[in-house]
Design a protein that fits this description.
Layout lengths: L10 E3 L3 E4 L2 E4 L17 H18 L20 H19 L2 H8 L9 H20 L4 H11 L4 H11 L5 H12 L2 H12 L5 H32 L3 H5 L7 E4 L9 E5 L14 E2 L2 E2 L8 H4 L5
Antiparallel strand pairs: 1-2, 2-3, 4-5, 6-7
Helix pairs in contact: 1-7, 1-8, 1-9, 2-3, 3-5, 4-5, 4-6, 4-9, 5-6, 7-8, 8-9
Length: about 300
């Protein structure tokens, strides 16, 4: 470069070589990183167990000021200053809108919320987009129109966040996140813990905020599908869904009022007997996974229409 006493060495990249500082490095297709996700659930119980392990890690091992307070209310004590309390409340309101109200209105409340190169709200949205992509891979549902709508609502003035959100929307993953998803789908609990802890080390809290968005989205959809399956089985057998859930050989069930779980009326939810419950002490769980939220994708987004 003109004007520099010691210009940097030239860098040239071709289809199969990199030339830097006079040295040539060769590479082939096997050296290229594949950011796409290719997976399928072979063991649903293992996947649910691994998802539960991720929720436990988020509540107990994520950075103190991460968005994991959304999963464990006692973590809100880590947000003490006026700005921190206001930030946590804004995130809480936005997440409630996403999962219980207007999806896109909630996204608009979350975008740009927080400090850092990629604010926590943007990281959470990226995790949600990755969660939708994972669900699409696992269950064959078309969440892409919803993901596109979320991306449009989340796009702002932060070019770093915009780029990251666009990659998440398209299911293009950085290595640490991809490792976690593969561990969730087909790995052991130990591999999930290892991958999650590595992700939690990304940024001050970005990795944990991503994982929180991912966990809440996948957990919500898994819970919704479970309830629909149980309802369908009840209808097919001619029994009331409460009767089916409270079968003599199954776990004891209790009636749940609106507001106890995800702000929606729920007929009966099983008390968790899992050794690693994905809910706070005293909360209710659905079999081995919790029902903290219910993701509602309006039909107009599922059909690719804009708001």
């Amino acid at each position: 470069m003109a004007g520099l006493a010691n210009p940097p060495p030239p860098l040239r990249v071709t289809a199969h070589t990199v030339l830097f500082a006079g040295r040539r490095y060769h590479f082939t297709a096997r050296h290229r990183y594949d950011s796409t996700l290719d997976c399928e659930v072979e063991d649903l119980r293992r996947f649910q167990h691994n998802l539960a392990a991720l929720g436990e890690l988020l509540r107990n091992a994520s950075p103190p000021k991460s968005l994991a307070f959304l999963l464990a209310s006692q973590r809100r004590k880590n947000f003490r200053a006026g700005f921190e309390r206001a930030f946590a409340e804004q995130i809480r309101r936005g997440v409630r809108q996403v999962f219980h109200g207007s999806l896109l209105e909630g996204i608009r409340q979350l975008k740009g919320c927080g400090l850092g190169l990629t604010p926590a709200g943007d990281d959470l949205i990226a995790g949600l987009l990755i969660g939708l992509h994972l669900l699409q891979k696992l269950h064959g549902q078309n969440f892409q129109p919803a993901a596109n709508a979320v991306f449009r609502a989340a796009r702002g003035d932060n070019i770093f966040s915009n780029a990251f959100l666009d990659l998440a929307r398209r299911g293009l993953l950085f290595g640490t996140m991809k490792d976690l998803l593969l561990a969730l789908v087909s790995g052991s609990e130990g591999s999930v813990r290892k991958a999650a802890r590595k992700l939690f080390g990304v940024g001050a809290s970005s990795g944990a905020d991503l994982a929180t968005g991912l966990f809440m989205t996948v957990q919500a959809e898994e819970c919704r599908m479970w309830k629909e399956c149980r309802k369908q089985k009840a209808q097919e057998s001619g029994k009331d869904s409460r009767e089916l859930l409270a079968g003599t050989t199954g776990p004891r069930t209790v009636p749940v009022r609106s507001g106890q779980i995800c702000g929606r009326t729920t007929e009966a939810i099983e008390r968790s007997a899992c050794a690693r419950p994905c809910c706070e002490p005293g909360r209710f769980a659905v079999r081995s996974f919790v029902c903290p939220v219910v993701l509602v994708v309006p039909a107009r987004y599922a059909q690719g229409q804009q708001k």
